[in-house]
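Hello,

Following up on my earlier ticket. Below are the two sequence lines again, exactly as submitted.
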Amino acid sequence: MIIPLLKVTNLSKSYDNIVGCKNISMSLYPGEVLGIVGESGSGKTTLINCLSGNLEPDRGKIIFNTNNKETDFLNISESEKRKFIRTDLAFVHQNPRDGLRLNVSAGGNIGEKLMSVGYRHYGNIRSLATKWMNKVEIDKSRIDDLPITFSGGMLQRLQIAKNLITSPNVIFMDEPTGGLDVSVQARVLDLIRSLVNELNLTVIIVSHDLAVIRLLADKMIVMKNGTVIESGLSDQVLEDPQQEYTQLLVSSVLHV
Amino acid sequence: MIEVKKVNKSFTLFNQNNAKITVFKNLNFEVNPGEIVALKGPSGIGKSSILKMIYGSYIIDKGAIIINNKNIATLSAQEILKLRKTSIGYVSQFLKVIPRISALDVIMEPLLNSGDTKNNAYKKSIKLLKDLNIEKNLWHLSPLTFSGGEQQRINIARGFIKDLPYLLLDEPTASLDSRNRDIIINLIKAKSNRGVSIIGIFHDEYSRKKLNVREIDLNIETKH
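Thanks for your patience. The regenerated structure is below:
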């Protein structure tokens, strides 16, 4: 019996009297990619913000099982929580400018992340940073350049490198290809997918693009008005949706 | 062995006046190891649906589909993922891949995902590409730029690269010239000789004859 890496039970979060997400329960197993879809305001971002520690939910349980250790995420001290977020979780923002420091060099952005989990040796940090620049297909000669000189696609790849370099156990991605040109999207998608396969990453990805979910996610959940209305294997939910809203969502996709 | 037992399947189209389409009522058949079963019937009768139900892409209303002593209908998502990885190969009608990934990488991926070494996966994939008569100058290109027949062979290669006990084939010989069709037929035969249970949709009489299939006529099976 495999223990889920993440187990969520009855998670709820409201903003005053507006429902963010309500009674969410789900499990994620090591190496799985979970897609979250739903219209704007359906609670996707609220959910991953609660799971990644950016928001405090009102009710519910979040249990992580990483490195053979159980972490009751909502019942640990603030310092333990910060440490856990630093070492075990990563968050890739839709806008790479939210996840990077633009006045610090590309290598510095990656190096900072390494230092936050205890790396001290400058040579090691620089060689790891160079290796990861290469992994995300950014020329290593750009390591000392400021991110403001990078294109949108390069910035997103840099943000991915920064997030993955410390081998986090769960990676959250909020519309990682959302702000990119279509041609650049394919490249970032391909990169995410090959890294997921190569490093056996566990990922929770929010996207309104069903094609992105289809290509990246093993499982998916469909959200509406803050609740999960359908969940299952991605191909099953997309090919044989059981709920009216999911059918509407799937049938609304334009095919080129 | 694959057992399809008393299966009912319907689709309810909520956004089209809740129209209910019944596809199968009390569908029963089995596929033994080494056997090749061909699903027969006019288009729209549910041939591809059967493959998708067995693969877990379609949810069944009633009944059971037993593979490896496990009932697909009652497995959790992660259990189905695991069963697919270890046991079921599925060759869909069309190749679905991300742009930019090379044909070679597309074929190697299932092996790498199961923990095979890069070197091993590379060797096996190269051999299969050669067997499938794909020209060497295409190996490192994205198959999305290939012709229909070439794409189909890449799709087959991806489904055949691992040694899995069950294979689901959705028109594997469509859009192939006679020479390449014979190559695919021989690959399918080789799988069958190794004891693989195979269910396929074969549009042409020639392939069905050559493969010595047992036909399941859905016109008869689904009369209700």
